[in-house]
């Protein structure tokens, strides 16, 4: 205590002495610069001290070269270690800021203002840089994909167009050929490795941006020149952007993205571009491209069937929504369905495997049943990923697709038979073509409806061109320059031939399957075929189809030639097919019907082209071989009685139509054979001579 008290007293006396020195005048001495530097607080003293936070801990000794060495290692405190880890996490998880498309498109370097060409070049370089970054390392540069997709929403049309085109190869390269399913809630909560989490994040980002991209294409593709004629808000640039969006969708449909997510939305884009055939060349190109894309998809989906069912379902719905105001080529798209080539709905299905008895079952524990259930789930996922399909699923797709197509056909025919909607009438020929192919697969319940509608359609066409409203077979309202000739135009002739062939095909295929308990009267179809034989002969398009090489119409407004989607059967082929169905594949053929048909065929041979004439002569030869001496009298007039009268062609009396059974065919003579004997084609000349020679030999016997 004494020491402490003496120390305090010493400090007080020292402080008192300093105060006296300050108060005493002259006692204060000016300090030198050296004294100030010593007493002044230095800058390094103001800096914070860094203490050594590490401490050393002695570890186990190590023996090296026969000597035991002491090992000391540094230990970092836990608080500092946690701070460093948190800083590293922040650095790793921090992503580069994504620039908005409007800001990115409007970026300009400092200096003079860029010209439009330089600005466009700069945008191209930026889009190319983003696309190349994504393709180099997709998982690392996924933010570039987001930025590139946002550039498609830029207000400038040039930027949006370039971004849309740049994303086509990007998605084609990144997207797999299968669907990426969304993660379940349990999968989102479970802990996974960094690589798995990174892959999942990339996949979800890819699916999200692809969905937005497809939605943008669907919105832009709706704008076309045909739909925007009366709209002043739509600019030509927007119309061009809509065409580019439709072409981009077709390009994605032709790639492996047809099996990727949102494929239904992708298929809807080209389907909605199918309307009336546009007159503008650019829109017509998109129209044709959409048709070819759908045909390719339907032809390639022969083994699976899910894509075919999806496309047919969407297409049928769109056609009904448009109230059948579509082009004939759109209906012909159904003829490209390859899924129904080997479908036989009348085949007897094999009985299912018998159920195993309870005593024969192998007992499984609860754990084994759980494992088997998990294995089945894994196998199902693997099967879906490999695009595998069972025979039952494929048959189900076939039946549903066929039902959709035939239902649409029936609705179009019913609307056309009423005579109110002209749009549906223009689709009758395409529907008949489809019925000739898929009609044999129709259910028996639909057979009666189809025959009734076909008969009404045929009667409507014949009534319009009935001789009761004409004068000697010459229409009163037809111009002199009408190139079709006859009572019926080429289109009407084709519709009638398709009606006849479809009706016989439906009945015959059901009869062969043994599901025809009743008989149908098809005499009206036979009478109509006899009526139009001469009009078929003078048709200018008798042997032409869309595959024939023909000169383009100079008066046509469109530069692209008019080609139907399928529709490959010519009128000549349909005529021979109808004759074969009547006389050789059904029970409707008879000698009484063969006689008037032979006379009409010989009259038509004088006007038919070379190939059709050869085919008709071969058919007559088959009839002669089938009915024998019953037809031989037509090549000779020796046994005829003059009082029987003459053959009635059908236009002798004004306002009277002569039926096939009342044309006095017994007095008909094939004098046309003499003219065919002088035909320029040697094959036709030899064929006519051969038939006449055989008839005389058979008659003499």
Give a verbal description of the structure.
The chain is mainly alpha-helical and 701 residues long. Among the domains are: 304-345 and 383-546 and 559-579, no CATH class; 590-701, no CATH class. It has helices spanning 2-23, 33-39, 43-46, 78-93, 101-105, 116-136, 142-151, 157-174, 185-189, 194-221, 236-253, 263-272, 281-300, 306-321, 328-331, 366-385, 391-418, 422-425, 428-438, 444-464, 490-512, 523-531, 533-537, 571-583, 591-605, 610-627, 672-676, 682-700, and strands spanning 55-58, 62-64, 67-69, 72-75. The chain has a two-stranded antiparallel ribbon. Strands 2-3 form a two-stranded antiparallel sheet. A hairpin with a 2-residue loop joins strand 2 and strand 3. Helix 11 crosses helix 12 (263-272), helix 14 (306-321) runs parallel beside helix 17 (391-418) and helix 26 runs parallel beside helix 28. The longest helix has 28 residues, at 194-221. InterPro entries: ARM-type_fold, CCAAT-binding_factor, Noc3_N, Nucleolar_cplx-assoc_3. Residues 8-21 have a biased composition (Basic and acidic residues).
Rg computed from alpha carbons, rounded to a whole number of angstroms:
45 Å
First-last Cα distance: 167 Å
As a percent range, the share of helical residues equals 55-70%
Shape designation? elongated
Report the strand count: 4
**What's the story with the biggest beta sheet?**
2 strands, antiparallel
Mean pLDDT, all residues: 76
Assembly status? single chain
Domain Nucleolar complex-associated protein 3 N-terminal: 123-213
Protein name: Nucleolar complex-associated protein 3
Biased composition (Basic residues): 355-373
Biased composition (Acidic residues): 82-101
């Amino acid at each position: 205590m004494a020491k402490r008290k003496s120390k305090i007293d010493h400090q007080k006396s020292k402080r008192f002495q300093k105060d006296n020195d300050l108060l005493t005048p002259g006692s204060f001495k000016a300090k030198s610069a050296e004294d100030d530097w010593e007493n002044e607080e230095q800058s390094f003293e103001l800096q914070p001290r860094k203490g050594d936070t590490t401490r050393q801990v002695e570890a186990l000794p190590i023996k090296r070269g026969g000597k035991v060495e002491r090992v000391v290692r540094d230990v970092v405190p836990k608080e500092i270690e946690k701070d460093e880890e948190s800083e590293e996490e922040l650095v790793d998880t921090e992503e580069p800021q994504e620039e908005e498309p409007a800001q990115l498109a409007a970026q300009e370097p400092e200096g003079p203002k860029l010209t439009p060409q330089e600005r466009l070049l700069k945008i191209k370089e930026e889009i190319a840089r983003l696309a190349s970054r994504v393709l180099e390392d997709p998982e690392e540069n996924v933010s570039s994909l987001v930025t590139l997709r946002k550039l498609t929403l830029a207000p400038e049309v040039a930027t949006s167009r370039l971004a849309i085109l740049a994303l086509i190869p990007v998605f084609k390269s990144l997207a797999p050929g299968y669907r990426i399913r969304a993660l379940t809630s349990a999968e989102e909560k479970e802990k996974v490795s960094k690589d798995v989490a990174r892959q999942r994040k990339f996949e979800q980002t890819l699916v999200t941006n692809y969905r937005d991209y497809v939605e943008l294409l669907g919105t832009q593709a709706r704008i076309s020149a045909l739909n925007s004629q009366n709209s002043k808000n739509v600019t030509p640039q927007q119309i061009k952007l809509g065409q580019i969006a439709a072409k981009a969708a077709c390009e994605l449909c032709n790639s492996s993205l047809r099996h990727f997510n949102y494929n239904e939305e992708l298929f809807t884009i080209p389907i909605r571009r199918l309307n009336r055939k546009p007159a503008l060349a650019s829109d017509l190109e998109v129209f044709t491209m959409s048709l070819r894309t759908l045909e390719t998809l339907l032809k390639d989906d022969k083994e699976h069937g899910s894509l075919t069912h999806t496309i047919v379902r969407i297409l049928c719905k769109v056609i009904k929504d448009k109230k059948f105001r579509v082009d004939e080529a759109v209906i012909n798209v159904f003829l490209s369905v390859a899924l129904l080539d080997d479908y036989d709905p009348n085949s007897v299905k094999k009985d299912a495997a018998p159920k195993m008895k309870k005593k024969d079952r192998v007992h499984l524990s609860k754990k084994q049943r759980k494992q088997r259930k998990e294995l089945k789930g894994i196998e199902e996922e693997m099967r879906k990923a490999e695009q595998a399909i069972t025979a039952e699923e494929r048959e189900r797709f076939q039946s549903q697709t066929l039902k959709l197509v035939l239902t649409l056909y029936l609705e179009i025919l019913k609307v056309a038979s009423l005579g109110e909607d002209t749009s549906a009438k223009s689709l009758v020929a395409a529907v008949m073509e489809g019925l000739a192919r898929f009609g044999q697969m129709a259910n028996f319940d639909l057979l009666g409806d189809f025959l009734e509608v076909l008969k009404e359609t045929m009667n409507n066409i014949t009534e319009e061109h009935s001789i009761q409203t004409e004068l000697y077979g010459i229409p009163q309202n037809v111009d002199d320059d009408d190139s079709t000739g006859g009572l019926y135009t080429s289109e009407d002739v084709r519709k009638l031939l398709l009606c006849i062939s479809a009706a016989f095909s439906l009945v015959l295929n059901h009869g062969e399957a043994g599901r025809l308990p009743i008989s149908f009267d098809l005499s009206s179809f036979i009478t109509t075929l006899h009526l139009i034989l001469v009009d078929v002969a003078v048709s200018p398009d008798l042997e032409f189809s869309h595959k024939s090489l023909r000169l383009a119409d100079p008066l046509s407004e469109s530069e692209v030639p008019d080609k139907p989607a399928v529709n490959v059967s010519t009128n000549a082929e349909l005529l021979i097919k109808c004759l074969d169905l009547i006389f050789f594949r059904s029970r409707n053929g008879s000698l009484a019907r063969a006689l008037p048909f032979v006379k009409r065929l010989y009259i038509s041979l004088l006007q038919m082209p070379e190939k059709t004439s050869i085919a008709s002569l071969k058919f007559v030869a088959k009839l002669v071989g089938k009915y024998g001496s019953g037809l031989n009298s037509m090549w000779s007039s020796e046994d005829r009685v003059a009082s029987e009268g003459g053959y009635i062609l059908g236009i002798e009396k004004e306002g009277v139509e002569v039926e096939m059974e009342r044309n006095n065919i017994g007095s008909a003579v094939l004098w046309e054979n003499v003219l065919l004997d002088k035909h320029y084609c040697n094959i036709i000349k030899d064929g006519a001579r051969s038939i006449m020679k055989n008839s005389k030999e058979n008659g003499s016997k």
